[in-house]
Specification:
This protein has three domains: about 90-175 and about 190-275, no CATH class; about 290-425, Orthogonal Bundle (Fumarate Reductase Iron-sulfur Protein, Chain B, domain 2), CATH 1.10.1060; about 435-720, no CATH class. By secondary structure, the protein is mainly α. It is built from 27 helices and nine strands.
Length: about 725
């Protein structure tokens, strides 16, 4: 009686010459792969070394709230394994990609195991032993087929789902139209062709792999144990049912096997020269991403201001350019692109990648943009910031961090934009109004160009004197910022906050004329030297004052004080005024009356996305008894007002729609009475947007402290009425 061994032949029917051809082709494909990979790695090493100091524990000492701590490697691995960043705001795409991801890894593992058994164990035992050994038999073989059939099905379902989604989608994210249109035109047909080749080539490899399995089972006359190869067995049965005999299956199998092998080896060789490189670079980029890079911008550590050449970039930044998958998520959420500005974070990364590849002597097979003349990323020897990336593109950024937040592969666009802006600032290429604001900041310490002695002028309407923190100890030092100090529209709000704090018995004071602009937007404009000067002046003022904590009404100031000043020596806790107000109101039960009314709340970029303060303002709205109607885009998905990154100092008349107008139209659809803000710049931007969108009289822009003050006033009025009764 014959003993049936559950296994299969690795080579079945191929001649010795065909086997030689197979191994020779495999060697060539692997060689091309590693040559391409070597070029990529050489490009990365052309940049500055990766700074690993962020992983050291001592780097965490000044991180007061945990926002700028390094992403733990364990969390990065979990996000890679779960495709968590891909699933963000699009669960369907995330699930499809997860199936493809693990299915692909499973099939890679299957191929590796097969090669290990035949090419390593088999050859070693054949050469050094008396007979060839194999572990590819019995229960191992059965489990192998059952498990990796599941991997093949997962990869196939995931890939088909992604292909169908792309084919049917009308999303602007998948539209390759540029935000900045070159004068001489452009074509991204090769990019689209690269996408199709990648997707349909992978599909063809998967389908032929499944067919090989089914044809082999049919050709071997359906051994009972092959039922463990459940998908292949089912397809083989279907083939046999439509008349494909075992003899025909054997003949077809050989042809399909060679087609499959040719495509698979071509794909291996293609990876480092195409979009497929993201298979390797995306996980690597997620592992080395720096969550602090945007919140706490790196200093200019070059011997010249800003990026000018390939070796000015860090290795990590060059890696992140190759990690981009062109998914377009950053393109769709960018407020600059939405408003008609010539900036798309996606286009910026693709232009820089094409320029970096050309600078390093690399070239993608298909994944690049064509132009009739050498412009943009095709410029040879031009200025990086100015010719490769146009000034108008760089100055359009609001540094809102929406692109960084949504990127599934961990690209940090904002620090790169700021580094390029530094070059523009150095050569004086900027908007005249921005130039004027920077001059005011350098000479007066504020963007309004007013005397420092006028910084506390807003307090003249108070019926009490503000404490001078330079002369008397206070618990809180109130850092107002420029707009809360100098903008006449915000003076009343500053007085309301001061009154609420005084009535609540809070010990607070200000710096009067010693306060300077905190420098958050100065730094993000690219004026690093001026930023450092402002930091030095403010730290000197802090040293001359007596306080325990800092709070500020300005989220922009809050971000730099809380995240960047500790690097220069600040060791005091920094709070946003919504946090202080909430602590007061929750401590004093019944402090707020029930205002009623429908309101919506806008999450400021520098408070929400940057510093993860979402609930405190909402809790204040709730305590005031208002019905909060959430904006469709809220919390980490909030839409920028358009003021950040120095944009509030620049001309925005070229925009087809200001971001603040886009946001106000979104609010108008909610049927709310009040638009609540927690940022002075938001108050200014949205107060204008109410008028320009025709919503004046329908929606009122109010600061969060105005709600609190009104609710406390009603409580006071109720108490007085009760006493009179």
């Amino acid at each position: 009686m014959l003993t049936v061994i559950e296994t299969r032949q690795i080579f079945a029917g191929e001649t010795r010459l065909e086997r030689v051809v197979f191994y020779l082709a495999s060697f060539v494909a692997i060689l091309i792969f590693f040559v391409g990979l070597a070029f990529r790695v050489r490009k990365y090493f052309a940049g500055r070394p990766l700074d690993l100091s962020r992983f050291r524990r001592k780097h965490l000492d000044r991180d007061l709230l945990g926002i700028t701590r390094p992403v733990p490697v364990s969390r990065s691995i979990h996000e890679i394994a779960s495709n968590g960043t891909v699933s963000k705001r699009n669960r369907g795409v995330g699930l499809a990609h997860l199936a493809l991801f693990w299915g692909f890894l499973g099939l890679l593992a299957a191929t590796t195991i097969l090669s290990l058994d035949y090419d390593v164990v088999g050859n070693l035992t054949r050469i050094f032993g008396h007979h060839e050994l194999s572990f590819f038999t019995g229960h191992f073989y059965l489990a192998y087929n059952a498990i990796f059939d599941l991997a093949g099905l997962a990869a196939l379902v995931g890939l088909v789902g992604l292909i169908v989604r792309r084919a049917r989608s009308t999303s602007i994210a998948l539209d390759y139209k540029r935000a900045q249109i070159p004068e001489d035109g452009y074509s991204r047909a090769r990019m689209a062709a690269g996408d199709l080749l990648f997707a349909y080539g992978l599909l063809a490899i998967l389908v032929t792999g499944i067919l090989i399995q089914a044809l082999r089972i049919d050709a071997s006359r359906f051994p009972p144990y092959e039922r463990w190869t459940w998908m292949g067995y089912a397809i083989a049965s279907a083939m046999h049912g439509i008349g494909i005999s075992s003899t025909s299956a054997a003949a077809i199998h050989l042809w399909i096997w060679w087609i499959h092998i040719a495509m698979a080896l071509a794909f291996v060789a293609y990876i480092p020269w195409s979009k497929a490189i993201h298979i390797m670079t995306a996980p690597a980029n997620l592992l080395v991403r720096d969550s602090s890079a945007t919140r706490r911008l790196p200093a200019n550590n070059l011997d010249h201001p800003g990026y000018r050449s390939l070796d000015d970039f860090t290795s990590k930044e060059l890696l992140s350019l190759d990690a981009c998958t062109k998914c377009g998520r950053c393109h769709s959420v960018c407020p600059a692109r939405t408003g008609g500005a010539p900036l798309s974070p996606r286009d910026l990364i693709l232009d820089l990648r094409q320029w970096a590849d050309r600078s390093a002597g690399l070239s993608m097979v298909l994944d690049w943009e064509q132009r009739p003349t050498a412009s943009g990323p095709l410029v040879a020897g031009g200025r990086l910031a100015g010719d490769v990336i146009l000034p108008a593109t760089l100055w359009s950024c609001t540094t809102c961090m929406a692109c960084v937040e949504i990127c599934p592969v961990g690209i940090e666009h904002v620090p790169t934009i700021v580094s390029l802006r530094r070059s523009l600032v150095d050569e004086g290429t900027m908007d005249p109004t921005l130039q004027s604001a920077l001059e005011n900041l350098a000479t007066q310490g504020n963007s309004f160009g007013k005397s420092a002695r006028m910084r506390a002028r807003w307090a003249k309407g108070l019926d009490f004197d503000l404490v001078d923190a330079r002369k008397q100890h206070v618990e809180y030092l109130w850092f107002l910022g420029d707009f809360a100090s100098f903008d006449e529209r915000l003076g009343e709000i500053s007085r309301i906050l001061a009154t609420v704090l005084r009535d609540a018995g809070v010990s607070f004071g200000i710096l009067f004329e010693d306060e300077r602009n905190a420098g958050n937007d100065v730094r993000r404009v690219g004026e690093e030297g001026l930023f450092e000067m402002l930091v030095e002046q403010n730290l000197a003022a802090f040293a001359g004052a007596d306080f325990d904590k800092i709070f500020t009404t300005d989220p922009h100031s809050f971000n730099t004080l809380r995240n960047e000043y500790p690097v220069y020596g600040l060791d005091k806790p920094v709070l946003h005024y919504s946090e202080v107000l909430l602590e007061i109101m929750e401590t004093n039960e019944g402090a707020l009356a029930n205002l009623g009314g429908r309101v919506t709340y806008h999450d400021p970029c520098y408070l929400g996305r940057y510093n993860r303060i979402f609930e405190q303002p909402r809790r204040l709205v709730e305590l005031a008894g208002c019905e909060l109607v959430e904006m469709p885009r809220n919390r980490t998905n909030s839409f920028c007002c358009g003021a950040g990154g120095g944009r509030i100092w620049m001309d925005d008349s070229v925009l087809t729609e200001r971001p603040s107008e886009n946001r106000m139209r979104e609010a108008a659809e909610l049927g709310v009475e009040q638009f609540v803000v927690a940022c002075p710049k938001d108050y200014v931007m949205f107060s204008d947007a109410v008028k320009t969108t025709g919503n004046e009289g329908r929606i009122k822009v109010v600061d969060i402290v105005e709600l609190v003050a009104e609710a406390t006033r009603l409580v006071g009025a109720g108490s007085a009425g009760g006493e009179q009764g």
